[in-house]
Amino acid sequence: MLRRLHAEQPESFAFTPANRAWAEAQIAKYPEGRQASAIIPLLWRAQEQEGWLTRPAIEAVADMLGMPYIRALEVATFYFMFQLAPVGRIAHVQICGTTPCMLRGSEDLIEVCRRRISEEPHHPSADGLFSWEEVECLGACANAPMAQIGKDYYEDLTPESLERLLDALAAGEVPVPGSQIGRFASEPEGGPTTLTQWAGEGRQPHNGSVALALEIGDTVKRIDGTEVPLVTPWRRSAPPEEPPPVAAEEAQEPRPSEGIPADGLGITVQEAEAESAGRPDGAREPGRDARATVAPSPAGDPAPVPEQAPALLHGPARGGRRRSRGDRGDRPEARRPAA
Description:
Elements: H1 17-27, H2 39-50, H3 55-65, H4 69-78, E1 91-96, H5 99-103, H6 106-116, E2 130-135, E3 147-149, E4 152-155, H7 159-170, E5 178-179, H8 208-216, E6 255-256, E7 270-271, E8 313-316, E9 322-324
Parallel strand pairs: 1-2, 4-5
Antiparallel strand pairs: 1-3, 3-4, 6-7, 8-9
């Protein structure tokens, strides 16, 4: 499905101070040169702030991460969790229309949205409070049909229960998420049918996700960065360790020469440590006098070196290769008489 940016765009975008501090903390998770890995959380935070993802927001996030605009746009248009058009001020309703929910009545829920919100998806209602769309599977097939409103799932819906949810949200209330028929988690409707002797032992009133939503309180409200203190454990670093003290290099004193006893006054012939026992100083080492290390030549003049004529190059051979006088083909023993 081709997704495009909305035709009407705001002039600019800027994170709130709290959201910008959060965004910079997310970028700090990644090593230098890998800041683009924070693209999805930053786009999500921008959407939470504005309600939908605008072009200036996409470009602002790309600038923060040092990315080309087209790369950030590719991410924003690929994932359906990013809303590219304005949404309702209170909530955006996502109706699951995949097979299990469709068989259980999701088409009736869509008709409620068409009547209560707008005829077409991705268009806010006349009062601007709600918007809706049909989405693919949200993973709650056992409790179909269902819808996601805000950040929570509302399951086992009927047209009547969806109407009540919209009325409660419009009145400023936050309905209890989860099953709307009293089902616990994804148990059979009416209660468990197996292991019933342990069903009520230590059971909480609500399953985990519903209990967490009730603890948070308002799961429809958009995140603005003030919900919880900003915690960035990845920024904590131990104080730099001081380097161990470097021991002063002890001077290498000369040692007595082996096999030479001290004289009557206690004076000995001393020899200093060589810089490298395996590679004594040579004539080609920089800073040394080559004459001090080169052995003298034996007496007498050196034998004369016979002069050698320089090699001559003939014209190109038949194969196009030039041959010198040393080539095998020019040697007398290599020539053969014609047959």
